[in-house]
TrEMBL record:
This is Ferrochelatase. It comes from Mesorhizobium salmacidum. InterPro entries: Ferrochelatase, Ferrochelatase_AS, Ferrochelatase_C, Ferrochelatase_N. Coiled coil: none annotated. Fe(2+) binds at H223, E304. Pfam families: Ferrochelatase (PF00762). Gene3D superfamilies: 3.40.50.1400. Keywords: Cytoplasm, Heme biosynthesis, Iron, Lyase, Metal-binding, Porphyrin biosynthesis.
Length: 353
C-alpha cells in the first residue's frame, strides 16, 4: 500500500511570500549544543551574577524560596563569589579570557559544523543554561537564520533534573516568547550508548599508556546531587552506575579496579555517596599508592574536573600518603569525544534531514 500522508522533509519548501508579508525564512534545522554555564569573569560581579542565576533555579535548589532566598542573598552570594572566583582564576583560559568550559564547548560546536558539512540545511550553534551565550539568544539566532526545527543537545551523558531537564525548560522558556516557534527535539541521555562507552574506554587506555605508573585503582568520579533528589526519583545515580559498569566490562577490569564516587557537594544536606574526597583519602590511608581519576559525567573539562579533581583531590591523596596521582581529561573536543556527539546528532536528526 502507498502511504498517502507521509511528508518527505526534502520536499518541504520555505513558506512563500504573500501580499504585504516578507518571505518567511524556513526549512533549516538548528543543532544547539547546550552546556551548563560559566561566569563571564573571575571577579566578584560576574561570579555573583552567574551564581545567582544558577542557584535561583528551582530545579537545582528545591527549597522553598522564602527559606532559600535569605540564605542565598545573605550568605551564599556574599561569600561564594570571592571563593569560587579564586578557583576559576587558577584554571582560566587567559588567551581567550574565558573559562575552559566555554572554550571546549565552542570547539565542539566548530568541529561538529565541519563534521556535518554533508548536511547543508543544518546550522550548528552552542549555548549555556546559565550565563552566556544564553539559550534564548542562540534559539533566536537560529530562528532568524531560518531554522524551523531545533535539535537541542544537553551535553550530559547521565540525565538529571538538575541539568538535562532544566536545559530543556530554558529552551521552551525562550520559545514562549516567539510567535512562530520552531519544532523542537532533545537528544536523550547517552550514558549507555556503545559509542560513548567505547570513547571513554579508548580515551582512558590512551592516557594510561602515557603514565610512568600503573594505577592500582581508577575512580570514575561524577558530579553529585543531593540524596533526597535521587530518593524522590531522579534516575541520575542509576545512570552513573550503569556507565561505570559498562566501562568496566569494556575495559575488562574488576570491581576493585574501577570504582564509582560522587564529587562537588554543595550545602549541608547529604549528597550521593561515596564521596570522592573521602574515598581518595581512605584509599591512600589503606595503602593504595597509585590512582587515576576520570570524570565520565562531564563532557568537557571545567572547574569541577580541573580544579576540584586535578588540584584538590591530588593534594588530598598526597597528604594522606599516596604517591602517584593522574587526572584523565574529559572527552572534550578529542576525536573520541566528537565521534560521540556526531553519532548522537546524526541519529536524532533522522527524518529531519
Ligand atoms: C545544589 C547545587 C548544585 C547541583 C544540584 C549541581 C548539579 C550538577 N552540576 C553539574 C555540572 C557542573 N556544575 C558546575 C559548577 C557548579 N555546580 C554548583 C552547584 C550544583 N551543581 C555550583 C555552585 C557550581 C559553580 C562552581 C562553584 O562555585 O563551586 C560545573 C562547572 C561550570 C564551569 O564553569 O566550569 C559543571 C559542569 C552536574 C553534571 C550536576 C548534576 C548531575
Ligand atoms: Fe554543579
Ligand atoms: Fe566544585
Amino acid at each position: 500500500m502507498t502511504p498517502t500522508n507521509v511528508v518527505d522533509p526534502k520536499t518541504v519548501k520555505p513558506v512563500a511570500a504573500t501580499a504585504g508579508h516578507a518571505p518567511a525564512k524556513a526549512g533549516k534545522v538548528g543543532v544547539m549544543l547546550v552546556n551548563l554555564g560559566t561566569p563571564d569573569g573571575t571577579e566578584f560581579k560576574p561570579m555573583w551574577r552567574y551564581l545567582r542565576e544558577f542557584l535561583s533555579d528551582p530545579r537545582v535548589i528545591e527549597l522553598n524560596k522564602a527559606i532559600w532566598y535569605p540564605i542565598l542573598y545573605g550568605l551564599v552570594l556574599t561569600t561564594r563569589p570571592k571563593k569560587s572566583g579564586a578557583n576559576y582564576a587558577r584554571i582560566w583560559n587567559r588567551e581567550k579570557n574565558e573559562s575552559p568550559l566555554r572554550t571546549y564547548t565552542r570547539a565542539q560546536s566548530e568541529k561538529l559544523t565541519g563534521a556535518l558539512r554533508d548536511l547543508p540545511n543544518v546550522i550548528v550553534d552552542w549555548a549555556m543554561r546559565y550565563g552566556n551565550p544564553s539559550t534564548s539568544s542562540v534559539a533566536e539566532r537560529l530562528v532568524a537564520q531560518g531554522c524551523d526545527r531545533i535539535l537541542s543537545f544537553p551535553l550530559y551523558p547521565q540525565y538529571s533534573a538538575t541539568t538535562t531537564a532544566t536545559a530543556n525548560d530554558q529552551l521552551f522558556r525562550a520559545l514562549m516568547k516567539m510567535r512562530a516557534a520552531p519544532a523542537v527535539r532533545s537528544v536523550p541521555p547517552y550514558y549507555a550508548e556503545p559509542v560513548y562507552i567505547e570513547a571513554l574506554a579508548s580515551s582512558i587506555e590512551r592516557h594510561l599508556a602515557t603514565l610512568d605508573f600503573e594505577p592500582e585503582v581508577v575512580i570514575t568520579s561524577y558530579h553529585g546531587i543531593p540524596k533526597p533528589y535521587s530518593d524522590k526519583g531522579d534516575p541520575y545515580r542509576a545512570h552513573c552506575l550503569d556507565t561505570t559498569r559498562l566501562l568496566r566490562e569494556k575495559l575488562g577490569w574488576d570491581e576493585n579496579k574501577l570504582i564509582t564516587t560522587f564529587q562537588s557537594r554543595f550545602g549541608a544536606q547529604e549528597w550521593l555517596q561515596p564521596y570522592t574526597d573521602k574515598t581518595v583519602e581512605k584509599l591512600a590511608k589503606d595503602g593504595i599508592r597509585s590512582i587515576a581519576i576520570v570524570n565520565p559525567g562531564f563532557s568537557v573539562d571545567c572547574i569541577e574536573t580541573l580544579d576540584e579533581i586535578g588540584r584538590e583531590a591530588a593534594e588530598t591523596f598526597h597528604h594522606a600518603g599516596g604517591e602517584n596521582f593522574a587526572h584523565i581529561p574529559c572527552l572534550n573536543d578529542s576525536p573520541e569525544g566528537m565521534a560521540v556527539i556526531e553519532a548522537m546528532v546524526r541519529r536524532e536528526l533522522s527524518g529531519w534531514v
